[in-house]
Amino acid sequence: MKNIKRIALCLTFIVCFHSCKNEEKIPLDNQKETRPNIVFIFADDWGWGDLSAHGHPYVKTPNIDRLVAEGTDFQRFTVASGVCSPSRTAVMTGQFPARHLVNGHFAWVADNAKRNMPDWLDIEVTLLPRLLQEGGYATAHFGKWHLSNNMVTDSPDPSEYGYDEYGAFNCSGEQMPVHHDADRAIAFIEKANEAKKPFFINLWIHEPHTPHHVVPKYQQKFPELDEADNIYASVLSHADDRIGEVLNAIDRLELTDNTLVIFSSDNGPARVAYDVKELKLKYDSATGVGYDTSASKGITGGRKGYKASLFEGGIGVPFVVRWPEKVKAGAIDNTSLISAVDLLPTFCELAHVELPENYESDGMSQVATLQGEPYPLRTKPLFWKYNSKWPAKSKTTDHWVSYAIVDQNWKLVANNALSYVELYDITKDTYEKTDLKGENTAVVNQLITKIKDWQKGLPAHPSSKLFSKERKTL
User: Fold this and answer.
1) Which of 8, 28, 207, 261 has the smallest CB count inside 10 Å?
2) Biggest distance spanned by C-alpha atoms of the chain
3) In Å, how far are 18, 21, 26 from 13, measured between CA atoms?
4) Which CATH number fits the domain 33-378, given the four candidates 3.40.5.60, 3.40.50.2300, 3.40.50.2000, 3.40.720.10?
């Protein structure tokens, strides 16, 4: 009897062993993919108040409002800069842009050199799309680039940053027309779905950055508005419709339940600093002719400052997240302090992609926060740097901040010399109305020390490998 039991056990072990071995031999491509698709929609200069869901008086954004209704509206999200290129650098690297000396927008080579900037973002650093690409995702970028500039013709094209496919403007090479972003994204989604691969798409739309490229049928939707407001409403309506086309394609392909869709903006809204007497046109070498900031009518929902400010109006932007059954539908989170530098570790955790051992993230994964666990205090400090004028100009009174830090519940803003500061309890005072530095001198001193320590770790000059050949002629 004992021998029979032993034989039975041996046979069971052999069957289990071969079963396990066979499972191990199943190719990864043939296993059911459960990791989410990720579509990150990053608008350009879209203010926190520029959504009808956020109470805009005349802008209509039904497709983004649909994301709000079907997902969670995180109302305390901040980007890593008040302007374009550094904000996008933070998304790509998960690090503060000052680490890369990207402290302003990439422009002409001479302007980059004057501001002690490289001419493009380093392709050799840890990058979000490359991590996901190496993790088995189909990766694509459609829309604005501005991690260099189309005027820097020898800069790397987006494919060198970890994308399988791209169509872009404000980059070297061919400039994709600004309104072709949604069509290209939909075609890529269809291709990835047919290949049964999870996909990651950076959909970086142009609107409402200048030039404002208006389409008559969208202007006809707002006949009651004066011309400047009509232009602004029409370009946002056009962008919202293209976002709707992408959402409809995801529905049509039955990918909605396993696709994380995020809508956000790279910084606060642009506003003209002078009295507008008549609308003006401008020409952009990447996108063509359109109206300039005389038609920029973005609002911040009451937050202080606009684009290029490190107050909340410049860095506090929409952040709407939809992922059915994973992220709460119809919810508002007005307490969690999420940052753009958190996106890389968050997306990588969702994609089951490990971060490199030598990589130092300035952010942290916010998967639990997205799924409903509030994160009201920043236990890992956030830092900002921007070269602002001091003292502030009379028409841009909220644009003097060169350094900012958020630590725990505190936000401290300072001028370039750290000789003037203001302190806010940012968890309670979103609109930064009450300066608390007078009764919290110890906190002020601690935060100034942290800024100084952070400054010591920043590079003094960019690497020459990030210079255009044009620098030799300067």
Assistant:
1) 28
2) 102
3) 9, 12, 20
4) 3.40.720.10
Q: How many CB atoms lie within 10 A of CB 281?
A: 13
The 3-state secondary structure of 372-438, one letter per residue: CCCCCCEEEEEEEECCCCCCCCCCCCCCCCCEEEEEECEEEEECCCCCCEEEEECCCCCCCCCCCHH
What 3-state class would DSSP assign to 35? coil
- What would the pLDDT profile of 262-315 be if each residue is shown by its tens digit? 999 999 999 988 788 899 999 999 999 999 999 999 999 999 999 999 999 999
Angle at 93 between CA 357 and CA 81, to 5 degrees: 140
Give the strands of the sheet with 410-414, arranged side by side.
378-385, 403-408, 410-414, 421-425
Indicate the SS3 state at residue 467: coil
Residue 339's DSSP bridge partners are 78
158-167 pLDDT tens trace = 999 999 999 9
Q: Is the pTM of this model over 0.90?
A: yes
Region of 151 (left: φ > 0; alpha: ψ -120 to 50; beta: rest) is: alpha
Q: What is the pLDDT of residues 27-57, one digit of tens each?
A: 444 446 789 999 999 999 999 999 999 999 9
**Residue spans per domain, the chain:** 33-378
Backbone region of residue 287 per phi and psi (left: phi > 0; alpha: psi in -120 to 50; beta: other values): alpha
Q: Which helix (H) or strand (E) holds 18?
A: helix 2-24
